[in-house]
Write a structure and sequence with these properties.
CATH topology of the largest domain: Dihydrodipicolinate Reductase, domain 2
Number of domains: 2
Strand order of the largest sheet: 8-9-10-7-11-12-13-14
CATH class of the largest domain: Alpha Beta
Order of helices and strands: EHEHEHEHEHEHEHEEEEEEEHH
Bound molecules: NADP nicotinamide-adenine-dinucleotide phosphate
Number of helices: 9
Shape: globular
Number of strands: 14
Radius of gyration: 20 Å
Structural class: alpha/beta
Strand content: 15-25%
Protein backbone atom coordinates (compact mmCIF):
# COMPACT_ATOMS: atom_id res chain seq x y z
CA UNK A 1 0.00 0.00 0.00
CA UNK A 2 1.27 3.50 -0.75
CA UNK A 3 1.84 5.35 2.52
CA UNK A 4 -0.11 8.55 3.08
CA UNK A 5 1.37 11.76 4.40
CA UNK A 6 -0.73 13.03 7.29
CA UNK A 7 1.79 15.70 8.30
CA UNK A 8 -0.23 18.50 6.69
CA UNK A 9 -3.24 17.70 8.90
CA UNK A 10 -3.65 18.97 12.47
CA UNK A 11 -2.45 16.47 15.08
CA UNK A 12 -4.85 13.66 15.96
CA UNK A 13 -6.19 14.35 19.48
CA UNK A 14 -5.75 11.48 21.92
CA UNK A 15 -8.96 10.57 23.75
CA UNK A 16 -10.53 7.79 25.77
CA UNK A 17 -12.81 6.01 23.30
CA UNK A 18 -14.58 4.17 26.10
CA UNK A 19 -16.19 7.30 27.58
CA UNK A 20 -19.95 6.90 27.22
CA UNK A 21 -21.36 9.69 25.04
CA UNK A 22 -23.62 12.24 26.73
CA UNK A 23 -27.33 12.23 25.98
CA UNK A 24 -27.66 14.09 22.62
CA UNK A 25 -30.40 16.22 24.18
CA UNK A 26 -27.79 17.85 26.44
CA UNK A 27 -25.68 19.19 23.53
CA UNK A 28 -25.88 22.90 22.59
CA UNK A 29 -28.60 23.89 20.12
CA UNK A 30 -27.49 24.59 16.58
CA UNK A 31 -29.29 25.34 13.32
CA UNK A 32 -28.77 22.69 10.60
CA UNK A 33 -28.97 23.27 6.88
CA UNK A 34 -29.55 20.07 4.91
CA UNK A 35 -27.95 19.86 1.46
CA UNK A 36 -29.76 17.21 -0.64
CA UNK A 37 -33.27 16.08 0.32
CA UNK A 38 -32.77 12.32 -0.13
CA UNK A 39 -33.20 9.22 2.01
CA UNK A 40 -30.57 9.74 4.72
CA UNK A 41 -31.45 13.44 5.00
CA UNK A 42 -34.91 12.41 6.18
CA UNK A 43 -33.55 9.99 8.79
CA UNK A 44 -31.09 12.62 10.00
CA UNK A 45 -33.82 15.27 10.28
CA UNK A 46 -35.98 12.86 12.29
CA UNK A 47 -33.12 11.96 14.66
CA UNK A 48 -32.16 15.62 15.23
CA UNK A 49 -35.75 16.66 15.85
CA UNK A 50 -36.60 13.77 18.21
CA UNK A 51 -33.36 13.46 20.18
CA UNK A 52 -31.58 16.85 20.25
CA UNK A 53 -32.53 20.46 20.97
CA UNK A 54 -31.13 21.58 17.61
CA UNK A 55 -33.31 22.53 14.66
CA UNK A 56 -33.43 21.74 10.96
CA UNK A 57 -33.44 25.40 9.97
CA UNK A 58 -33.13 25.04 6.20
CA UNK A 59 -33.16 22.53 3.38
CA UNK A 60 -31.71 22.89 -0.11
CA UNK A 61 -32.48 20.71 -3.08
CA UNK A 62 -31.85 20.89 -6.82
CA UNK A 63 -35.63 20.97 -7.06
CA UNK A 64 -37.61 23.62 -5.19
CA UNK A 65 -40.69 21.40 -5.15
CA UNK A 66 -38.70 18.58 -3.53
CA UNK A 67 -37.27 20.97 -0.93
CA UNK A 68 -40.77 22.27 -0.20
CA UNK A 69 -42.10 18.73 0.29
CA UNK A 70 -39.22 17.94 2.66
CA UNK A 71 -39.80 21.21 4.51
CA UNK A 72 -43.46 20.41 4.94
CA UNK A 73 -42.74 16.92 6.30
CA UNK A 74 -40.16 18.18 8.78
CA UNK A 75 -41.49 21.71 9.50
CA UNK A 76 -38.38 23.41 8.08
CA UNK A 77 -38.70 27.21 7.94
CA UNK A 78 -36.18 28.08 5.18
CA UNK A 79 -36.45 26.37 1.80
CA UNK A 80 -34.12 26.68 -1.18
CA UNK A 81 -34.29 25.38 -4.75
CA UNK A 82 -30.50 25.33 -5.10
CA UNK A 83 -27.51 24.35 -2.97
CA UNK A 84 -25.89 27.73 -3.67
CA UNK A 85 -28.78 29.60 -2.03
CA UNK A 86 -28.78 27.20 0.92
CA UNK A 87 -25.10 27.64 1.80
CA UNK A 88 -25.45 31.44 1.56
CA UNK A 89 -28.22 31.49 4.17
CA UNK A 90 -27.61 33.45 7.41
CA UNK A 91 -30.11 31.26 9.23
CA UNK A 92 -27.89 28.18 9.57
CA UNK A 93 -24.81 27.28 11.62
CA UNK A 94 -23.68 24.14 9.78
CA UNK A 95 -24.35 22.24 6.55
CA UNK A 96 -25.09 18.50 6.44
CA UNK A 97 -23.94 17.19 3.03
CA UNK A 98 -26.30 14.30 2.22
CA UNK A 99 -25.62 13.75 -1.49
CA UNK A 100 -23.94 10.75 -3.24
CA UNK A 101 -20.22 10.26 -2.41
CA UNK A 102 -19.33 11.38 -5.95
CA UNK A 103 -20.49 14.89 -5.05
CA UNK A 104 -19.22 15.26 -1.47
CA UNK A 105 -16.07 17.11 -2.52
CA UNK A 106 -17.97 19.65 -4.63
CA UNK A 107 -20.69 20.19 -2.03
CA UNK A 108 -18.35 20.38 0.97
CA UNK A 109 -16.25 22.94 -0.90
CA UNK A 110 -19.41 24.89 -1.73
CA UNK A 111 -20.37 25.05 1.97
CA UNK A 112 -16.87 25.83 3.25
CA UNK A 113 -16.51 28.47 0.53
CA UNK A 114 -19.61 30.17 1.94
CA UNK A 115 -18.05 30.10 5.42
CA UNK A 116 -20.13 27.20 6.76
CA UNK A 117 -18.81 24.22 8.76
CA UNK A 118 -19.71 20.80 7.34
CA UNK A 119 -20.81 17.34 8.38
CA UNK A 120 -20.31 15.16 5.29
CA UNK A 121 -22.00 11.78 4.85
CA UNK A 122 -19.94 8.59 4.61
CA UNK A 123 -17.98 7.68 2.60
CA UNK A 124 -16.48 11.16 3.12
CA UNK A 125 -15.22 11.32 -0.48
CA UNK A 126 -14.40 8.93 -3.32
CA UNK A 127 -10.72 8.72 -2.29
CA UNK A 128 -7.94 10.11 -0.10
CA UNK A 129 -6.98 12.86 -2.55
CA UNK A 130 -10.47 14.36 -2.43
CA UNK A 131 -10.65 14.12 1.38
CA UNK A 132 -7.36 15.99 1.71
CA UNK A 133 -8.75 18.81 -0.46
CA UNK A 134 -11.69 19.26 1.92
CA UNK A 135 -9.56 19.14 5.06
CA UNK A 136 -7.04 21.54 3.54
CA UNK A 137 -9.82 24.03 2.80
CA UNK A 138 -11.37 23.59 6.27
CA UNK A 139 -7.99 24.19 7.88
CA UNK A 140 -7.26 27.30 5.79
CA UNK A 141 -10.71 28.73 6.56
CA UNK A 142 -10.61 27.57 10.20
CA UNK A 143 -13.95 25.78 9.78
CA UNK A 144 -15.15 22.52 11.29
CA UNK A 145 -15.41 19.45 9.04
CA UNK A 146 -16.24 15.84 9.87
CA UNK A 147 -17.24 12.58 8.18
CA UNK A 148 -20.65 11.36 9.37
CA UNK A 149 -19.26 8.03 10.63
CA UNK A 150 -21.99 7.92 13.28
CA UNK A 151 -21.09 4.48 14.70
CA UNK A 152 -18.12 6.11 16.45
CA UNK A 153 -20.41 8.22 18.63
CA UNK A 154 -22.83 5.51 19.74
CA UNK A 155 -22.96 4.19 23.32
CA UNK A 156 -22.51 0.64 21.96
CA UNK A 157 -19.12 1.54 20.50
CA UNK A 158 -18.01 3.10 23.78
CA UNK A 159 -19.07 -0.11 25.58
CA UNK A 160 -16.95 -2.19 23.16
CA UNK A 161 -13.91 -0.01 23.90
CA UNK A 162 -14.61 -0.18 27.63
CA UNK A 163 -14.62 -3.99 27.53
CA UNK A 164 -11.41 -4.05 25.48
CA UNK A 165 -9.73 -1.53 27.85
CA UNK A 166 -10.79 -3.57 30.89
CA UNK A 167 -8.65 -6.46 29.67
CA UNK A 168 -11.56 -8.92 30.04
CA UNK A 169 -11.03 -10.39 26.58
CA UNK A 170 -7.24 -10.31 26.85
CA UNK A 171 -5.29 -9.11 23.83
CA UNK A 172 -7.39 -8.42 20.76
CA UNK A 173 -6.48 -10.86 18.00
CA UNK A 174 -9.23 -10.58 15.39
CA UNK A 175 -11.95 -8.17 14.31
CA UNK A 176 -14.55 -9.78 12.05
CA UNK A 177 -17.22 -7.52 10.56
CA UNK A 178 -19.64 -7.81 7.70
CA UNK A 179 -22.05 -5.47 5.96
CA UNK A 180 -24.25 -6.74 3.16
CA UNK A 181 -27.47 -5.21 1.86
CA UNK A 182 -29.39 -6.13 -1.29
CA UNK A 183 -29.15 -2.86 -3.18
CA UNK A 184 -28.65 -3.88 -6.81
CA UNK A 185 -31.98 -2.83 -8.26
CA UNK A 186 -31.15 0.37 -10.16
CA UNK A 187 -28.30 0.54 -12.71
CA UNK A 188 -28.45 4.34 -12.81
CA UNK A 189 -28.79 4.81 -9.04
CA UNK A 190 -26.01 5.75 -6.68
CA UNK A 191 -25.20 2.15 -5.63
CA UNK A 192 -24.44 0.75 -9.10
CA UNK A 193 -23.54 3.83 -11.12
CA UNK A 194 -19.78 4.48 -11.42
CA UNK A 195 -20.46 8.18 -12.07
CA UNK A 196 -22.07 8.38 -8.62
CA UNK A 197 -19.16 6.46 -7.02
CA UNK A 198 -21.24 3.30 -6.68
CA UNK A 199 -20.06 0.01 -5.24
CA UNK A 200 -20.26 -1.93 -2.00
CA UNK A 201 -17.00 -0.69 -0.52
CA UNK A 202 -17.76 3.03 -0.24
CA UNK A 203 -21.39 2.64 0.72
CA UNK A 204 -21.36 -0.43 3.00
CA UNK A 205 -17.75 -1.60 3.36
CA UNK A 206 -16.78 1.71 4.90
CA UNK A 207 -18.53 0.59 8.11
CA UNK A 208 -16.58 -2.64 8.80
CA UNK A 209 -13.40 -0.90 7.65
CA UNK A 210 -13.87 2.09 9.96
CA UNK A 211 -14.88 -0.29 12.77
CA UNK A 212 -11.69 -2.35 12.47
CA UNK A 213 -9.61 0.82 12.10
CA UNK A 214 -11.16 2.26 15.28
CA UNK A 215 -9.99 -0.80 17.23
CA UNK A 216 -6.75 -1.82 15.50
CA UNK A 217 -5.61 1.28 13.59
CA UNK A 218 -4.09 1.37 10.10
CA UNK A 219 -2.87 -2.00 8.86
CA UNK A 220 0.43 -2.24 7.00
CA UNK A 221 -0.90 -5.10 4.88
CA UNK A 222 -4.17 -5.02 2.94
CA UNK A 223 -5.46 -7.82 0.73
CA UNK A 224 -8.78 -7.51 -1.08
CA UNK A 225 -10.56 -9.80 -3.47
CA UNK A 226 -13.97 -9.30 -5.00
CA UNK A 227 -16.23 -9.20 -7.99
CA UNK A 228 -17.50 -6.29 -10.04
CA UNK A 229 -21.08 -5.61 -11.09
CA UNK A 230 -22.09 -5.48 -14.76
CA UNK A 231 -21.89 -1.68 -14.36
CA UNK A 232 -18.21 -1.89 -13.36
CA UNK A 233 -18.30 -1.10 -9.63
CA UNK A 234 -17.45 -3.50 -6.80
CA UNK A 235 -20.39 -5.82 -6.07
CA UNK A 236 -18.78 -7.64 -3.17
CA UNK A 237 -15.40 -7.59 -1.51
CA UNK A 238 -13.58 -9.67 1.11
CA UNK A 239 -10.87 -7.64 2.80
CA UNK A 240 -8.12 -8.83 5.11
CA UNK A 241 -6.08 -6.36 7.15
CA UNK A 242 -2.95 -7.84 8.69
CA UNK A 243 -1.04 -6.05 11.43
CA UNK A 244 2.35 -6.55 13.07
CA UNK A 245 2.24 -9.34 15.63
CA UNK A 246 -0.95 -11.32 16.10
CA UNK A 247 -3.71 -8.99 14.89
CA UNK A 248 -5.93 -9.28 11.87
CA UNK A 249 -9.26 -7.97 10.61
CA UNK A 250 -11.49 -10.03 8.36
CA UNK A 251 -14.08 -7.83 6.68
CA UNK A 252 -16.77 -8.42 4.10
CA UNK A 253 -19.23 -6.36 2.12
CA UNK A 254 -21.76 -7.06 -0.61
CA UNK A 255 -24.56 -5.19 -2.32
CA UNK A 256 -26.00 -8.40 -3.78
CA UNK A 257 -27.43 -9.87 -0.54
CA UNK A 258 -28.64 -8.96 2.91
CA UNK A 259 -26.24 -10.46 5.41
CA UNK A 260 -26.22 -10.74 9.21
CA UNK A 261 -24.31 -7.41 9.54
CA UNK A 262 -22.64 -8.54 12.76
CA UNK A 263 -19.20 -7.93 14.23
CA UNK A 264 -16.96 -9.97 16.52
CA UNK A 265 -13.94 -8.73 18.42
CA UNK A 266 -12.01 -11.79 19.57
CA UNK A 267 -9.28 -11.68 22.20
CA UNK A 268 -7.01 -14.22 23.84
CA UNK A 269 -9.38 -14.50 26.86
CA UNK A 270 -12.86 -14.00 25.39
CA UNK A 271 -14.87 -12.30 22.70
CA UNK A 272 -17.35 -9.50 22.10
CA UNK A 273 -20.38 -10.11 19.91
CA UNK A 274 -21.96 -7.06 18.31
CA UNK A 275 -25.33 -8.18 16.91
CA UNK A 276 -26.74 -6.86 13.65
CA UNK A 277 -26.69 -4.16 12.66
CA UNK A 278 -23.25 -3.85 14.27
CA UNK A 279 -23.01 -0.20 13.18
CA UNK A 280 -26.07 0.74 15.30
CA UNK A 281 -26.80 -2.27 17.54
CA UNK A 282 -29.30 -2.64 20.39
CA UNK A 283 -26.73 -4.22 22.72
CA UNK A 284 -23.27 -5.73 23.01
CA UNK A 285 -22.49 -9.21 24.40
CA UNK A 286 -19.37 -10.31 26.21
CA UNK A 287 -18.53 -14.03 26.00
CA UNK A 288 -15.92 -15.58 28.28
CA UNK A 289 -14.36 -19.05 27.83
CA UNK A 290 -16.15 -20.51 30.89
CA UNK A 291 -19.45 -20.03 29.04
CA UNK A 292 -20.39 -16.84 30.85
CA UNK A 293 -22.22 -14.37 28.63
CA UNK A 294 -23.04 -10.85 29.72
CA UNK A 295 -25.28 -8.52 27.73
CA UNK A 296 -24.83 -4.74 27.86
CA UNK A 297 -27.79 -2.71 26.65
CA UNK A 298 -27.04 0.66 25.09
CA UNK A 299 -30.07 2.35 26.68
CA UNK A 300 -30.90 4.06 23.38
CA UNK A 301 -33.13 2.95 20.50
CA UNK A 302 -31.15 0.97 17.90
CA UNK A 303 -31.09 2.09 14.29
CA UNK A 304 -31.01 5.55 12.79
CA UNK A 305 -32.15 7.38 15.92
CA UNK A 306 -28.44 7.04 16.74
CA UNK A 307 -27.64 9.71 14.13
CA UNK A 308 -28.47 12.12 16.96
CA UNK A 309 -25.12 11.30 18.62
CA UNK A 310 -23.07 12.53 15.65
CA UNK A 311 -25.29 15.62 15.41
CA UNK A 312 -24.64 16.27 19.11
CA UNK A 313 -20.90 15.84 18.56
CA UNK A 314 -20.99 18.51 15.85
CA UNK A 315 -22.94 20.86 18.14
CA UNK A 316 -20.38 20.39 20.94
CA UNK A 317 -17.42 20.86 18.57
CA UNK A 318 -18.90 24.10 17.17
CA UNK A 319 -19.56 25.30 20.72
CA UNK A 320 -15.96 24.48 21.68
CA UNK A 321 -14.60 26.25 18.58
CA UNK A 322 -12.63 23.24 17.33
CA UNK A 323 -12.30 22.34 13.64
CA UNK A 324 -12.10 18.55 14.02
CA UNK A 325 -13.75 16.03 16.32
CA UNK A 326 -11.43 14.26 18.75
CA UNK A 327 -13.52 11.09 18.40
CA UNK A 328 -13.53 11.13 14.60
CA UNK A 329 -10.43 13.10 13.63
CA UNK A 330 -9.46 13.96 10.06
CA UNK A 331 -6.52 11.53 10.08
CA UNK A 332 -8.90 8.63 10.80
CA UNK A 333 -11.13 9.52 7.85
CA UNK A 334 -8.05 9.72 5.59
CA UNK A 335 -6.63 6.40 6.84
CA UNK A 336 -9.93 4.56 6.39
CA UNK A 337 -10.21 5.97 2.86
CA UNK A 338 -6.64 4.85 2.17
CA UNK A 339 -7.70 1.26 2.98
CA UNK A 340 -10.74 1.59 0.71
CA UNK A 341 -8.58 3.11 -2.07
CA UNK A 342 -6.23 0.13 -1.88
CA UNK A 343 -9.08 -2.41 -1.77
CA UNK A 344 -10.79 -0.79 -4.73
CA UNK A 345 -7.50 -0.79 -6.65
CA UNK A 346 -7.04 -4.52 -6.00
CA UNK A 347 -10.60 -5.25 -7.14
CA UNK A 348 -10.03 -3.10 -10.26
CA UNK A 349 -12.59 -0.34 -9.82
CA UNK A 350 -11.73 3.16 -11.03
CA UNK A 351 -14.27 5.98 -11.03
CA UNK A 352 -14.67 8.34 -14.00
CA UNK A 353 -12.10 11.12 -13.79
CA UNK A 354 -9.97 9.44 -11.12
N1 LIG B 1 -25.45 7.23 7.77
C1 LIG B 1 -26.21 6.32 7.18
O1 LIG B 1 -26.75 5.42 7.81
C2 LIG B 1 -26.45 6.42 5.71
C3 LIG B 1 -27.51 5.71 5.13
C4 LIG B 1 -27.75 5.88 3.77
C5 LIG B 1 -26.91 6.70 3.02
N2 LIG B 1 -25.88 7.35 3.61
C6 LIG B 1 -24.99 8.22 2.82
O2 LIG B 1 -25.70 9.40 2.49
C7 LIG B 1 -25.39 9.83 1.17
C8 LIG B 1 -26.70 9.93 0.39
O3 LIG B 1 -27.33 8.68 0.39
P1 LIG B 1 -28.94 8.54 0.26
O4 LIG B 1 -29.24 7.11 0.49
O5 LIG B 1 -29.63 9.56 1.07
O6 LIG B 1 -29.10 8.85 -1.28
P2 LIG B 1 -30.39 9.40 -2.05
O7 LIG B 1 -31.64 8.98 -1.33
O8 LIG B 1 -30.22 9.04 -3.47
O9 LIG B 1 -30.27 10.98 -1.86
C9 LIG B 1 -29.15 11.68 -2.31
C10 LIG B 1 -29.57 13.09 -2.63
O10 LIG B 1 -28.43 13.75 -3.19
C11 LIG B 1 -28.86 14.76 -4.06
N3 LIG B 1 -28.07 14.74 -5.29
C12 LIG B 1 -27.24 15.70 -5.71
N4 LIG B 1 -26.66 15.40 -6.87
C13 LIG B 1 -27.14 14.18 -7.21
C14 LIG B 1 -26.94 13.35 -8.34
N5 LIG B 1 -26.11 13.69 -9.34
N6 LIG B 1 -27.59 12.18 -8.38
C15 LIG B 1 -28.39 11.81 -7.37
N7 LIG B 1 -28.64 12.58 -6.27
C16 LIG B 1 -28.02 13.76 -6.20
C17 LIG B 1 -30.35 14.56 -4.29
O11 LIG B 1 -31.00 15.57 -3.55
P3 LIG B 1 -31.86 16.72 -4.24
O12 LIG B 1 -32.56 16.06 -5.40
O13 LIG B 1 -32.76 17.12 -3.14
O14 LIG B 1 -30.94 17.80 -4.67
C18 LIG B 1 -30.65 13.22 -3.68
O15 LIG B 1 -31.94 13.16 -3.11
C19 LIG B 1 -24.41 8.80 0.61
O16 LIG B 1 -23.09 9.28 0.73
C20 LIG B 1 -24.60 7.58 1.51
O17 LIG B 1 -23.44 6.77 1.68
C21 LIG B 1 -25.65 7.24 4.93
Amino acid sequence: MTSIDLSALPARPVIDKSLLPHDPATAPSIRWGILGAGGIAMMFARAVQHHTTSTIAAVGSRSLAKAQAFAQDFRVPHVFGSYEELVASDDIDVIYVATPHSHHLEHAQLALGAGKPVLVEKAFTRNVAEALQIFDMAQRKNLFAMEAMWTRFLPATAIVHEIINSGKIGDVVTVIADHGQKLDHDDAGRLLNPALAGGALLDLGVYPTAYAHDILGLAPNIVATGQRTHTGVDGQVALTLTYEGKQQASLHTTLWAKTATTAVIAGTEGWIEVPGDFYCPPSVRLHLPDGLTKEFSTGFPPGHAGLAFEAAEVARCLDDGVIQSARNPWADTVEVLSILDEARKQVGVVYPGE
